Amino acid sequence: MTTTDDSPEAHAFRDLLRSLRVWTGELPAFDPYAVPDAPLPLFRQWLGEAAAAGVPEPHTMALATADAAGIPSVRIVMLHDADENGWHFASHRGSRKGRELAARPRASLCFYWPLVARQVRVSGEVVTGTPEESSADLHRRSPGALAAALVGHQSEVLDSYAELERAADASWERAQREPDAEVESWTAYVLRPEEVEFFQGDARRRHVRLRYRRAGERTADGWQRELLWP
Ligand SMILES: Cc1cc2nc3c(=O)[nH]c(=O)nc-3n(C[C@H](O)[C@H](O)[C@H](O)COP(=O)(O)O)c2cc1C
Q: Which keywords accompany this UniProt record (predicted)?
């Protein structure tokens, strides 16, 4: 594939891309032979280390879903928890992702923590929380998050920004007045991991990739581990 755009802007853009670097600075070491039997403790450790290293918003992640025809879509959402049940997040049921998860309840998550050159990918089945769990999720969050959820209509076409401003102001006031307000479409989801892959970047490109896969009865804790070529 050859590039045809010869404009100064295109050249400047390509020069910028070539000038940018990854995997620089002091990167942590990662011994893939000294790891826990299951991925959760390692994930919690890595998220803690990313936060301690100053990675901004280490609890945000890309969530990839697909529609009934298999067309993929991806966006950032916040991690609300990671425990024995899986990786928790929440959104509106009627949004694009919500509709896709209803049609095809599987997803992949991807975290990237550049200051420590680490990536974590998680994939598996997605289970929808009960209305009680979804409501608890909503009310554990900040008044600002409740106000944002009260606006609703996520992923619908917006006719004008002024309409959003009016709705956001009304929702903000309602969230202050009624901190227990419910948002019917707000839904808690849990991704039950079947595969979790840890990637540690290395300045000499000898990246470490360690994958945990659900192994059923084959191992005591239900996970098998394997290294992958980077
Ligand atoms: C840092 C960040 C965090 C976000 N967290 C959430 C979230 O937790 N839940 C959510 O529904 N949308 C969240 N969003 C907005 C989504 O990226 C997306 O725009 C929205 O959910 C609509 O996606 P959809 O049309 O694919 O359903 C977040 C966006 C950013 C940039």
A: Flavoprotein, FMN, Oxidoreductase
